[in-house]
Design goal:
7-stranded mixed sheet; 5-stranded mixed barrel; single chain; 17 strands; alpha/beta; about 475 residues
């Protein structure tokens, strides 16, 4: 009994080790929305991060109607360069146009029920807004890319090409257990004996159409490996026990969002600059136009500036303060926005390890944001109050020569316009300096700023007050003797 017991334990251990060895890990990358340079940046970064985790599979969850062909080619080349793990395409909703190209770049393809794949003809919009398929110059390299993917990953080559070429017609021929796909143009040149051998052909893709398949058709035509009911069943099929989700960053989301509305931003930006050009001075419309155009042309680099965000917010905050002080004083909008930006810069550079231990909640496994908010707010208040209190109460106590502040004030100051009240029209005085046309003249033993209406008067000549308007004294040369 004892020996039998040991045999049972050994057998269970072997089964457990086999089950453990069959458990797989996967890195999950979601490709959703328009295919654009932003999607490529995310894909390249995500693949690099996924490879570092050393998974058995790198899975691409695809849901897209397509997009830019250059971005799709870059994504495909990046996926084809993966050597460290097996690549799997998982069509969760649709893989149309460039999405089909991306899906076929993986070693295996799975599709959920109700999903579609195909229709990858390159198109442009006519002047009336209707789509038009681009000519042979673009179709030829695209067909070559599909053939290359089909050859490397084991997909039907002719049917892959049928996703691109609307002029290609494909027949399916069956004889007993053998099934083949044939170009209709080549089938027309077959001998009668060959046609009789294979029987009546079935049209898979008719001329003027592009191949687009449902999940069931993709399995029947040997594109898809299967149709799991959901993601959990798909992971079970591949024996995946552990999944690493490679999330898209805020910068990558921002780049893709800006790319989607770039046309609107350009219209608004140039429109704002036009309004600014038509109005005197420089104001809010000029600022809005510059910001919108900068967002369009510089927003594509946002996914690379995540680590520099605090510095950028600090610079933006300072610039907003400059706008508030020098360009649009009194609006308070730019000043408050500047404070918010600098506050966010402080918050982004802060971490829990910098909090003092006496702060509540710091020692918790997952501290909340409240300690940070309280600490940063307290530090900000101290930073604002201390300089004001020091300049008012402490610095004035320093001895003369040691203080950076002037101890004189404007208590005895006197406005020069107070003396002008004593001057009347017709007052006679003497020019102290040449008036060309502005200078100094003396009236009643006091010197005043005066000006003429274009007349040049030499120093020492007699002048007479002709007008006093808004604190300005207007004079002219007088033949009378000065009594000043």
């Amino acid at each position: 009994m004892k020996f039998k017991h040991y045999i049972q334990i050994l057998f269970l251990a072997i089964l457990a080790s086999i089950g453990f060895a069959s458990a797989k890990t996967a890195a999950w990358i979601t490709l959703e929305g328009d295919v654009d340079p932003g999607m490529y940046d995310y894909t390249a970064r995500a693949i690099g991060e996924a490879v570092q985790k050393n998974p058995d599979y790198i899975i691409f969850d695809i849901n897209t109607f397509g997009g830019r062909l250059d971005a799709a080619f870059d994504i495909v080349d990046t996926i084809m360069g993966i050597r460290e793990a097996k690549t799997v395409a998982f069509v969760s909703k649709k893989a149309i146009s460039a999405g089909a190209l991306i899906a076929l770049s993986s070693k295996e393809l799975y599709m959920l029920p109700g999903t579609t794949i195909g229709d990858c003809a390159p198109i442009v919009q006519n002047s009336d807004g209707t789509p038009q398929i681009i000519g042979e110059k673009i179709q030829s390299p695209l067909r070559a890319k599909f053939r290359n993917l089909a050859q490397k990953n084991g997909y039907p080559e002719l049917l892959s090409t049928a996703m691109v070429s609307p002029d290609l017609s494909v027949y399916e021929l069956t004889h007993k257990d053998s099934t083949i796909a044939v170009d209709a143009a080549k089938y027309a040149k077959w001998s009668k004996e060959d046609k009789d051998f294979w029987g009546t052909p079935k049209v898979l893709v008719d001329s003027g159409e592009l191949l687009t398949m449902t999940d069931e058709e993709a399995v029947a035509l040997h594109f898809s490996k299967g149709t799991p009911q959901n993601r959990a069943e798909f992971e079970k099929t591949l024996s995946i026990e552990q999944v690493h989700e490679i999330e898209i960053t805020w910068g990558e989301r921002f780049v893709r969002f800006i790319a989607g509305i770039s046309g609107i931003l350009l219209i608004l930006g140039f429109g704002s600059l036009y309004i600014e050009f038509k109005t005197p001075g420089f104001g809010i419309f000029g600022i809005i136009g510059i910001v919108l155009l900068a967002t369009v042309f510089l927003g594509q680099y946002a996914n690379h500036i995540g680590e520099y965000l605090p510095l950028i917010l600090l610079v933006v905050g300072i610039l907003l303060f400059v706008v508030e002080i020098l360009i649009l004083p009194g609006t308070f909008i730019f000043g408050i926005s500047g404070i918010v930006c600098m506050g966010l810069a402080i918050a982004f550079t802060f971490d829990f390890s910098q909090l003092p231990s006496f702060m509540p909640g710091v020692e918790e496994a997952e501290p909340s944001l409240m300690p940070i908010i309280l600490y940063v707010t307290g530090c900000a208040l101290i930073a604002a109050i201390f300089p004001i209190a020091a300049s008012k109460y402490l610095i004035p106590l320093l001895p003369e020569g040691w203080t950076p502040m002037l101890k004189t004030d404007l208590e005895e100051a006197k406005s020069p316009t107070e003396d002008i009240v004593a001057i009347e029209v017709g007052e006679i005085g003497k020019a102290e300096t040449p008036l060309r046309p502005v200078g100094h003249a003396r009236f009643k033993n006091k010197s005043f700023d005066v000006q003429t209406k274009g007349e040049m008067i030499n120093a020492g000549e007699t002048v007479c007050v002709t007008e006093i308007i808004d604190g300005r004294i207007w004079v002219e040369k007088s033949e009378r003797l000065s009594v000043s």
